[in-house]
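Lab manual, section 2.4: Encoding a predicted structure.

Procedure: take the sequence of the chain (199 residues), apply the prediction step described in section 2.3, and record the output as structure tokens. A sample record is shown.
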Amino acid sequence: MKIGVFGGTFDPPHLGHLILAGEAMDQLGLDRLLWIVTSTPPHKPRQPFASGQDRLDMTCLMAEQDPNFAVSRVDFDRPGPHYTFDMLRLLQSEFPGDELCFLMGGDSLHDLPGWYRSQELVQICGSFGVMRRPDDRVDLDVLEEILPGIKRKVQFIHAPLIEISSHDIRRRIKENRMVRFYLLPAVYQLIKDRHLYIS
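Recorded output:
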């Protein structure tokens, strides 16, 4: 199987995430997509605004939208720091023989040489599904010189430019502005019921 690995803080997960997940499934020919709820990524020192359990519960609601979606607790149940290399090694042991396709943004691909054990990461990852944005600064030839093997593993995902961000949703909730149509109805209801992001 070809398994997509879609990681994020998902604080909260929104319709933009869902569209990107669907486009990745379609364009990359994925058999399955794992939503990975991260704790505190090493490159984002600020703690998430919602609790880990709240973010996990919201992401599970997202995963219910497609039978080929699933939520993995691989980064949720272990102490940090949570590096992508370690997470992929754990997933390899969980899914031996399957190809792991790590989903990332073009900005993350540009920064990949600075990631923890980046050269080994390129070697163990079957492919990289990269979601492009108009302002991406990615030169695959330059990247190949730093991380040999990366060029042949990159597959670009072409998706509509969706100007929805978790940061903006949190801000709008705090300001008591409309957010319901940026979110799945069940996620919106959970946020309301648990009074998330209001302070």
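Check your result against the sample. The chain has one domain: 2-163.
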